[in-house]
Write a structure and sequence with these properties.
The complex is a heterodimer of chains A (353) and B (227). Chain A is an alpha+beta fold. Chain A is 52% helix and 21% strand. In chain A, the strands form three sheets. In chain A, strands 4-5-11-7-9-8 form a six-stranded mixed barrel. In chain A, strands 2-12 form a two-stranded antiparallel sheet. In chain A, helix 2 runs antiparallel to helix 10. Classes of the chains: A alpha+beta (353), B alpha/beta (227). The complex binds adenosine-5'-triphosphate and magnesium ion (MG). Chain A: It is a multi-pass membrane protein.
């Protein structure tokens, strides 16, 4: 440890540059991971906030909420409990003078059921009639205020924002929570249809209708349009980034160790045990990487504080810790690879005659 | 009963056209209590001989014995211990760790070898004797060649080894210092009963030697002292 620290102290520039490189690499990984996660969360935020475990959809809907409809007839075959709640989805575009158009998901809820009951508002109140909606914070960030009237698609009636809620994104689009009747008129379906789906906190909704099928929330999320494709793209991007960065860091630490060999040869000639040298090398890599990761973490936190809210960033501490752990592990590996060389270092070759 | 004994040592580098035999059937002994000088011109095989004697490289054939123990029989770890505890090396170049101050070169040894090193009084006296006591806070790059060499000598003596192997320890010293170093080495041999082997082309050390070997083109012969 003595050698490792003295060396860093004496060669500030060299080690400063290496730490800077580790900082940049880990910062890049941290920020990209958080961005990817942020985007991924925008698909599922609303679903996660319901705390549901299963969803009942029309079996011909391809596990897609917007393709699913439950008729009044089918509804008669359902036995809903207090753990079940209707969900009625309509894709809408909101228009309001002086505001940009926003593509949103209208989700009709039934007042007394758990999704509506558990809805957490950051301001205002829940929808009390069919022309009131609770809007995701995205609307607030876009300049909408409580009491603002919005038009949906090219429908004639207008809807009033009576409340705001946080973290209500479904399939990237912000959610407007309304009522089942509101939904019927938006979709123009009349009263033949009850809702799009039923979500449940239980493992399934009791149904005796063979046209309706229960899915787990995980199955449902995986089938969200574009979700899996997006996720696997990001996973691969980050995995490649990780692997390449780790190789780069490992290579740097390798070169660093190789450059130390003349010194090590002297020390070995003097009888300093190889074990001491190996320990020092690994300890040094450890310090460099930990130092780099700490600085990168601070930068990432600063970035999160400064980045505009329109860019979703989501920090998952366990995931980021895992990434950091991976960095530490590979860099130690990078330092260990040349250990064989340290053990084999031939003092004579370096010392010369 | 020799402390260092080399028997029929041959050392060959390379193969085929690039094959060079650097040492030819070298026989050598050094005992505790004597300062043995190995004199030879540049390229004669002095450093090769010394590093083989200290177990830093292995001979192509022949046997090296330190304290009646064949080096071949020692494990890597035993050899390390042997070098740390029994041998003091003064190498021809690169003796010091560049990122440690002179004082820290000794601290490093303390950390690895917790007991048996000379105490701080003795070290101060040694550094004073070698006239390097005012360099303790300097890095090797800030020292002259001669100062570097004297720090290397002090470093080799720090562990109070039985055997000292020195490669050109006086190469960049002026005559006055050569005499001091010669005297110091001689005293260490006779008064502290160490075996000291110095390989050099520096004839100025001749006066301090107990015995002298001549090496030319890898062939070693013992000189009779009186010619
Ligand atoms: N690893 C090696 N591979 C090939 N040849 C070598 C090697 N090491 C030394 N030699 C050769 O062996 C010969 C003796 O080298 P050595 O270093 O022992 O000489 P020396 O007597 O110490 O010389 P100097 O006084 O210049 O230090 C030289 O010709 C050198 O080129
Ligand atoms: Mg030499």
């Amino acid at each position: 440890m003595f050698l490792a620290l003295k060396e860093i102290k004496h060669e500030k520039l060299r080690y400063g540059l290496i730490i800077a490189m580790i900082v940049l690499v880990s910062y890049l990984i941290f920020v990209l991971t958080s961005l990817a996660l942020g985007l991924s969360n925008q698909n599922t935020q609303a679903i996660t906030s319901w705390n549901a475990n299963s969803i009942l959809l029309n079996k011909d809907s391809n596990t897609n909420l917007s393709q699913s409809l439950i008729t009044q007839e089918q509804d008669a075959d359902l036995k809903l409990t207090k753990n079940d709640a209707y969900l009625a989805q309509a894709s809408v575009v909101t228009k309001s003078s002086g505001h940009e158009q926003i593509a949103a998901n209208y989700l009709g809820l039934q007042k007394k059921q758990f999704v509506n009951q558990n809805l957490k508002l950051s301001s205002g109140h829940k929808a009390e009639n069919d022309h009131q909606v609770v809007a995701d914070e995205k609307f607030q960030h876009s300049g909408y205020k409580l009491g603002d009237k919005i038009k949906l698609n090219s429908l004639s009636g207008s809807y009033k924002i009576v409340g705001f809620t946080k973290g209500a994104k479904f399939n990237i689009a912000p959610v407007l929570y309304g009522t089942l009747v509101g939904w019927q008129s938006i979709r123009g379906l009349g009263s033949n249809f009850k809702a799009s789906a039923v979500v449940s906190k239980d493992s399934h909704v009791k149904s005796s209708n063979s046209n309706l099928k229960n899915y787990s929330i995980k199955q449902f999320i995986d089938k969200l349009p574009g979700y899996s494709a997006q996720n696997s793209t990001f996973t691969f991007m980050i995995a490649f980034l990780m692997i390449i960065s780790l190789i780069v860091i490992a290579v740097f630490l390798y070169i660093l160790t190789i450059q130390k060999l003349p010194n090590y040869a002297v020390l070995r000639a003097q009888g300093i045990p190889a074990k001491v040298l190996v320990k020092n090398t690994i300890f040094q890599s450890f310090i460099l990487v930990i130092g780099g990761i700490i600085i990168a973490s601070i930068l990432t936190i600063l970035t999160a504080l400064l980045i505009p809210t329109s860019v979703p960033m989501s920090f998952n501490l366990p995931l980021l810790s895992l990434v950091a752990f991976g960095l530490v592990l590979t860099s130690i590996l990078g330092a260990i690879i040349p250990v064989r060389t340290i053990l084999k270092v031939d003092p004579v070759q370096v010392i010369g005659g | 009963m020799s402390t260092i004994e080399l028997k029929h040592i041959n050392k060959v580098f390379g193969t085929g056209l690039s094959r060079v035999q650097v040492l030819h059937d070298v026989n050598f002994t050094a005992e505790r209590g004597e300062l043995v000088l190995v004199l030879g011109p540049s390229g004669s095989g002095k450093s090769t001989f010394l590093t083989i004697a200290g177990g830093l490289q292995t001979p192509t054939s022949g046997e090296v014995q330190l304290n009646q123990k064949s080096l071949e029989q020692l494990s890597q770890k035993d050899l390390e211990n042997f070098r740390l505890n029994k041998i003091g090396f003064v190498l021809q170049a690169y003796n010091l760790v560049p990122y440690l101050t002179v004082k820290e070169q000794f601290t490093l040894v303390d950390r690895v070898r917790k007991a048996g090193n000379i105490d701080s009084n003795e070290l101060t006296n040694l550094l004073k004797y070698l006239e390097i006591n005012d360099t303790v806070d300097k890095y090797p790059a800030e020292l002259s060649g001669g100062q570097n060499q004297r720090v290397a000598i002090a470093r080799a003596l720090y562990t109070d080894p039985e055997i000292i192997l020195a490669d050109e320890p006086t190469a960049s010293l002026d005559t006055g210092r050569v005499q001091e170093v010669g005297k110091l080495l001689k005293e260490l041999a006779t008064q502290q009963n160490k075996a000291i082997v110095v390989v050099t082309h520096d004839l100025r050390l001749k006066d301090y030697a107990s015995r002298i070997y001549q090496i030319t083109d890898g062939k070693m012969v013992e000189d009779s002292k009186d010619n």
